[in-house]
Protein 1
Amino acid sequence: MIKKNSQNFGFSLIELMVSLSIFTIVVTMSVGSLLVLIDANAKAQNMQQVMTNITFALDSIAREVRTGSGFYCSNTSTSLDEFTTQDCMNGEYLSLVEGGSSLTGGASDSRIYFRYNSSDKTVDRRIGSSGTWFPLTSAEITVTDMSFYVYNSESGAEGNDKQAYVTIFIEGHAGQLESVDTSFAMQTTVAKRILDI
């Protein structure tokens, strides 16, 4: 007589459906967490790039302000002599006479010009009145607003013992994709280092 074994050793359809459902839920949650981490990493890299580039631009301007003189601020770019000064509020152009001659040694004059280029959305610098404008910010950064505020530009003049200082405000964003776009707004105030009295 042959004995037949009637036990089933496989999974039932219900057990298979339940295990697949649980697996799908776990994978979906894991992929969602991974995508959030990738997005956060991209934003962190954008912010680091923004901070590095904007800090470089602001430090370049601040270094020249600390050692410079003859501050002139306006909303239009003009060629100036070394003695012309002008305070302003919310100007797009800043000009100053370089303290040394490291940048302006071969230029037509000793003035350095900074501007907010609203068409290219960059911060630009020009050496001398006949020089070419060069961007200080990279192409990945879009500067949406920049203003210069100059106070006491006539420091050192007869009867004026106040220190000259410049406040710079800059605002913009960086990032090629809207989902990882990083906004920034920075402000710094720089005083002339050498007391001009």
Protein 2
Amino acid sequence: MRVWTRFAAFSAAIILFAAAQAAHAQDVVVFAAASLTNALDEAAQLFEKQGGTHPKISYAASSALAKQIEAGAPADVFISADLDWMNYLEERHLIQPTTRRNLLGNQLVLIAPADADLKVEIKPGLDLAAVLKGGHLAMADTDSVPAGKYGKAALEKLGIWNSVRGAVAPAESVRAALLLVSRRETPLGIVYATDAKADPRVKIVGVFPEDTHPPIIYPAALTASSKNASAARLLDFLGSPAARPIFEKEGFTVIAHAGGGA
């Protein structure tokens, strides 16, 4: 009898383990730009509450995530902070192009610690080096990370880049750049408006004119390798009226007709 009881308990454990593994296997795996962290976490929770499959989200720089997908990482959905990295994957046939759509927009801003007595008018001729007062300027990597690329483009357009390039403190993602300012390790940083909104320890001291950098657009698509039927439902949900207030609350611009292909 004891043998049977132990066998039954062991069998039940095996069944529960297998069920847990099956449930885990059905998670929708999302690779998303770090700047989406707060908004996408909330949207994912709402999606799940409405009966959707659990989204398992990995956040990092769009460049790092695209390279991981290229290397075979098992993602179902990719959301980039710029068009370039989505184009990179599409050119390599690593996304399903018919599912691609532009979801969101953002603004590029200059931030400082929340108690800084500072306001900067960002315009051509701005002496940003003087504003830094010998300190560093936190930026996401300017060669590969979208926020850093946008920031460098804006500074070049304004004629400022050469005067501050030596003062740049490079970070692996825009959230890492935000943290440098939040921890007061640098006096200024360039991030998205949504990042500044997410951290009460920083404040926006200047806004970059939209004509100084390419439009900040977040495209999303299913990966070519995804076989998860729930992934398409999640992608549609992110472009739906139900998700819109979440993104707008965090400061994103919701692109019209996000639910359709782009």
Protein 3
Amino acid sequence: MLDEMCASCGSRRLPDGRFCLFCGDLLAESSSPLANRLRSNPVPNTSDKIEYAGFWLRFLAGSVDIALEALGALLVTLAVDFVLQRFGRVFGIDRWNAKVFTGFAYISILAVGSWLYCAFMESSSWRATVGKRLLGLQVMDTEGRRISFSQATVRHFMKFLSLFCLMIGFFMAGWTKRRQALHDIPTDCLVIRVPAKNGSLLGITLA
């Protein structure tokens, strides 16, 4: 029975689960080979080595990124709208249909653009989007390595799960042991703070 409980918060773990979904802690006992490997190569998680990014820092960084994504999508959509208004009739697209197409284009460009932006930036040498970079945050896996593009992609789309759970998945970054949101846990990701001289463009040191 003890093997099925999280040692940190006492919550019951899911079958084959490696992390507690409530507190985000690595479960003390698991029969999976990967969990055994993590125990033999423990993740450095002491406060003197890693400072995890809390909810409000991540909220501010996310707000910057959303603004940049929306602005970028708007600029591209305006270019599409300009082309349609000028040359749409050549392809049999009237003014009304052009406006409808432009609306769908904005949604599509924003969806695809935000995915590529987050996945490429977080798997790059920066390990961060522009918003995270401004606030001195980085994304890494639980062993301190740079995440891959595919891992960043899964993490990005898992954010919709955090959103649809009444946003509780995002709020989890405020109370989990390693400040992980719901979309961080299945992808084995951490968001950390780095010294201003190494990773922050503004040198912001919000607590």
Protein 4
Amino acid sequence: MSHHLYQTECIVLGSRNIGESNRLFFLLTKDLGLVVGSAQGIRELKGKLRYSLQDFRYIRVELVRGKEMWRITNAAHLSDFHTLLGDKEKTALVARVSLLIQRLIHGEARDLTLFNVLYEFLKFLEKEELGTEELHSVEVLVNLKVLHLLGYGSEREIFRPFYLLPPSKDLLSHMAPVKKMALSEINRALQESHL
């Protein structure tokens, strides 16, 4: 019996160890939505996927659907966001946003807009020098945008530019006067989601 091989670009949202040498990966894919896939033998020294399958990387993967979950058969780097991941504050921010997305999405459904929002967010963090306060504003901005895209956000006109525009230093400067209101909106949406 042959299995269909799916190829897609994805952002690795996170991973966890399973068994002796395997690892489970949470992938936000361009074509399939959120996919949970296992990589066999990845923690072994000879594991062929160990260098390309890393948390918070932008990669191309080959997947095969198994009985219970996807299997990752191959992976190749597209971008590893090296500068971003060398910064502890930025890495922690990406981890929190990734956990939020994993928490809010259940089941596989293609969402190219969400994929593009996360990719733009990672590119922005990679190229910009940002202070602690700016990083906090970036987190508020991306959380507000993700919640809105997934149907948990407010339709209030004051937040509209933050939903529509890509991240930029200029947009962050417009976040300052509404940051408290945005944080209240995020907390309200998370409480109402019951997730």
